[in-house]
Amino acid sequence: MKKKLIVQAIALLGTAGWSEFATAQIQAAPAADAPIERVIVTGSNLKRTSTENPSVVQVISKKEIEQSGAVSVADLMAKVPALGSSNQVDSRDGGFSKGLATASLRNLGSASTLVLINGRRMSPAAYADPNAGQSTQYDLNSIPLSALERVEILKDGGSAVYGSDAIAGVINFITKSNFKGGDITAQRSQDGYGNFGRSGISGAYGFGDLEEDRFNAFVAFDFSRRDRTPIAEARAVHADQSRAMDGRLSSYYSSVSQYPVFFKESRLGSGSFNRYVSADLSCNPADIRTGSTALVPMLASDVMIGNKFCNYDGWQYEDAQGKAESSNVLARAEFKVDANIRAFAEASYSKSELEYAGVSRTLSRNKTTVFPKDGPGISFQPILGVNHPDNPTRGTAGAVPVAVNYRFTDAKGGSSNENTSTRLLAGLKGSHFNWDWDTGLLYNESKRHQVSNGFLYLPIVQRLVTENVPLKTIAGTPGVTVDSPLDGKASITQWDIKGSTELGQLAGGAIGLAVGAELKQEKMSIVPDARTVKGEIIGLANQYSQAKRDVRSVFSEVRLPVLKSVDVELAGRYDKYDGFSGSFTPKAGVKWTVSPTLAVRGTYSEGFRAPSLTQMVDGGTQYFLNSFEDKLRCGKPGADATDCLKSLSGVAASNKDLVPETSKSFTAGLIFSPANNFDILFDYYNIRKDKETDLMSPVAVINDPKLASRVKRDQNQGTWLRDASNNLIPNSGPLISIETPYINAGGTRTSGIDLELALRNNLGAYGKLASRLNASYTLSYKKAQSEGDPMIDLVGTNGAVYNDTTSVGEIPRLRASLSSTWSIQQHSLTATANYISSISMMAAYSVQEDGRVGPYEEPYCEYGRANRNENYTKFYPECKVKSMATLDLAYAYTGFRNTVLTFNVANAFNTKAPYDPSYSVAGYNSALHSARGRFFTVKANYKF
Description:
- The chain is mainly beta.
- The protein has 2 domains: 8-29 and 32-231 and 323-357 and 417-619 and 656-697 and 743-943, Maltoporin, Chain A (Beta Barrel); 254-312 and 362-407 and 620-653 and 699-739, no CATH class.
- The protein is built from 13 helices and 52 strands.
- The strands form 10 sheets. It has a 22-stranded antiparallel barrel. A 5-stranded mixed sheet has the order 3-6-7-4-5. Strands 12, 13, 19, 22 and 23 form a 5-stranded antiparallel sheet that branches.
- Residues 1-36 have low confidence and may be disordered.
- It comes from Pseudoduganella aquatica.
């Protein structure tokens, strides 16, 4: 067969990966007698040319991957404008997703973004993340960058074709196939100071020709090592501002150290231990501090104001990038059984080992609730009786019980994660009776082994209170701190069969029909440490799941070329999940070629996503809220600084009464070629999600009087606040814990515009120049956390700040990249400008006194208040995280035989990451911005 139309389009564009710009004008490029081979394009099961597809598909080619300078798949996806800020990154310890890197299209989360490998699903990671949109997470770290041939991103939702849960779209990672010969690549990346280092070696070897030898087999491998980089070495940040507002890398980190600080009750019997008594000051005199607001971020209400203590230097344990090693191997073979049947098999294994530094664990003067998996929580507070040997008031006339702050510095903090993935696929494909068919059996499992270091073992620590054992004795007791493991396993077993044919003729050509069926079993097992299950570990929450379910699906697709200029596509899918009624999700698309230079297209699709296994089954997930502002107490007489930056435990309870969420998506766009060397692609999208499965907002629970039963506060009336008449305010004690079950939330409405421009210039003796603009502009992102709440537009804001009843992250209005590649003889130079717009940090909506969500009388700057960060508005009077623009450069030289040398400089102008007050330790948002600064990658590739 002659050259594919898609390849001809690529050649015309001067660079691979531009199949979207193969317009009707490009369709006319082949000679009249040139047959066109039809292929499967992401978004359809029908063979076609790329120009016939009504759906929006962005293709990132192998060449573009190399020019990007990306050092991992996660790094590559971070450069795609259509991906939102709710991606997960694994650079630092913290949260439920540490060790993972995920993708989120349209800011709708990983649960709405279906990730495929060679057109088939990959197993979710064995994690239980209660945050919005993260209940199903696909780990990009398990995909080897070197094995990729291209990436295809379906932006309009592919629920009827690939799965009803592909609400935001599909990312299809396509690996090499029919590969012959050898290929090896070595690379090294780091910033100008030798930090953020990453080294890797990858390669592939294939042999056999399907037509001549009746088989082809290849194996690809990828090994990389990432160096630890402490926060102090993240230089591309606004360090002076972070130090002034958050104390970043200042001489003060924490007043809780291995030198204890003692507190007595504000009033005898009150249970509120917030009056400084004394501190052990036997540390190095250079480490002694006196409490003051000059010790940023100490607040004026902090009990340490005016009092001496020994500072704990925790900055040395804060990561900008954790240490990691990853290895991937992929093998694929295809056999030509006869003229009509081919057998194929694929096997892959990946392993990533990640290590994160962290500070040592502490005892706090405040009451802590330790949660077993089942049963009520166990309250613990380190109160030393009057006869305790460490009580500084012991033997005095005014002897009283005291509470203590203490850090177990002999125990290592931080954590480690080991994630592995095994994928096995075998199948047959062929052609019979005018049908092209494909069937395969897939097994994909992911395993997780996480170890959290140095947590306090309650049965030993309790002896401090129950047996008057001295602190030093407790700290020196073997087993007082434990490294707590957590193991998980998730898997998918799937059999599928699909076929396509042509039947009948319409004015525009043959009618295409595709049908298929899938049987799938999902399993999820998350097993915490037995000591955590019993409620014996202080400060560590349970994550637990033991569940499986079967899913049965049938789907069909028909292509109707009703006219030579009009192509209609209809698709439908029926899914039956165990425990739910069956659901039908349709999709329709149309493309109208108005003229040789203009085509318009549009799609409509519906989606259906059953709650994840972790949201449905017994067990659920426990969590901790840190730096949480208790609006009832913060800044009020009788409260202290801990009420403004509270740490409390919570339970994300499973809910068997959840119903599936549904969605409706609409796209409309045009493809326009005003000149032979200029193409414009413009698409509008609109996505509506209803009955979203989400965690009830902690703010909504705490502030809504009707939900008071879900909030646990200290019931000692001595801790309660008093009103202006000095009367006790019932149930106003410090927060201890909260229950936030999963609910079917109100919904989300988002819309926006994708714009792609391509310009190609032949410079004659000076080579060729190809330029492309890729931009995603979000028009609106409206969300109602609970049914009946108003739809509030969060675009351009930190959603959880603008409306604190939501957990939506930052949603920049505009993300864009503009690249130009100049090629001449053995040289190629690419320059890429990247842009991310600003983020507002204004607070505008919350739960009002009547329990309803509504606006504040006047919006305010969340982090500019005295009890937060009063210097913030001095630096940022507009109350915004600033926009960020960077320039990347890539140079490739092919003058040596079989060798390509590549040199990349990311962020060539060393632009600093914008300061973000939401991330007080790092000082920037690593999901949106990078603090690597000017970042160099050197790569050598040799083919044999």
